[in-house]
Design goal:
mainly alpha
Length: about 280
């Protein structure tokens, strides 16, 4: 299953809005790190290749789960898409939450949180190793409930495309929409390394699951973006692998099975030797 969030029409929107945001940031006196932008572009190219290489594995796994579903939802029924939207949002919430709260997944996801400025292109700074960690397995329950892998792929694609436009400081709070939808304000919180903002606002299109499960935080204090120990390199290989290197350093330094388990599957920051905690 290859999520086509980088289709040509969408890429046109990505470029157009990124240019508009660049002009806005410059005119409003905000900084714009072009070196970081170069690192993001390099990371995005590698991520596209890595995702393509894993597409068959992901598609095969979800198809197998779908074939075992006791009921299969018809793709030409509007109720399928209503159910599918909520199901994919629910699965995405838990995938995203585990990516922050389990170091095995955070080693990949730290890539996305490494930008020290919050701009639209930062949305494209994604890991090359996410599917290798098994993060796609969080969508298997949706397939087991009878949602076709193509529906999962399309709905997730639309969610990821929506989230691109959340990565900006140009849009302030959006009134009543903030209660239901993930917004730029909510997502700024998510990218904050302020103690009160860490591990908050995991939603994709919706923010309701964060409100239900106690992971919601309102944007109040100014947001400090990036990792708690800022990553200064713009080298795509450093951006992608810095947390994996820290994880394996801690793993090899472990003196017991318990320490090894915590180094790999504990919460990020649980190991004293960790170089890049959240």
């Amino acid at each position: 299953m290859q999520y086509q969030e980088h289709s040509l029409p969408f890429l046109g929107l990505v470029v157009a809005f990124a240019v508009l945001e660049y002009v806005w940031r410059k005119r409003s006196g905000r900084s714009y790190d072009l070196g970081a932008l170069g690192g993001t572009i390099g990371t995005a190219i590698g991520q596209f290749i890595a995702k393509a290489l894993m597409a068959g594995v992901v598609a095969g796994g979800l198809t197998l789960a779908y074939s075992a579903a006791p009921v299969q939802w018809a793709l030409d029924d509007w109720r399928t898409w209503a159910f599918g939207f909520l199901a994919v949002e629910f699965c995405y919430y838990w995938q995203h939450r585990f990516m922050h709260e389990v170091r095995w997944f955070w080693a990949s996801h730290a890539t996305h949180h490494s930008p020290n400025e919050f701009t639209l292109p930062a949305a494209l700074r994604l890991s090359w190793t996410s599917n290798l960690t098994g993060s796609w397995l969080f969508f298997v329950p949706a397939a087991l409930c009878g949602l076709h892998p193509l529906a999962i792929a399309l709905l997730l694609t639309l969610s990821l495309q929506y989230q691109y436009f959340l990565h900006t400081e140009a849009v302030r709070k959006l009134g009543p929409l903030e209660w239901v939808f993930n917004t730029p304000s909510h997502h700024r919180v998510h990218h904050g390394s302020n103690p009160e903002y860490i591990d908050k606002n995991y939603g994709g299109v919706l923010i309701i699951f964060d409100r239900l499960f106690g992971t919601f935080a309102e944007e109040r204090a100014p947001v400090v973006y990036g990792l708690t120990k800022p990553l200064q390199s713009n080298n795509p290989f450093v951006i992608v692998f810095h947390e994996w290197i820290a994880l394996f350093k801690d793993l090899f330094a472990s003196r017991s099975i318990t320490q090894a388990f915590v180094a790999v599957f504990g919460r990020p920051g649980a190991t004293a030797r960790q170089d890049y905690a959240k």
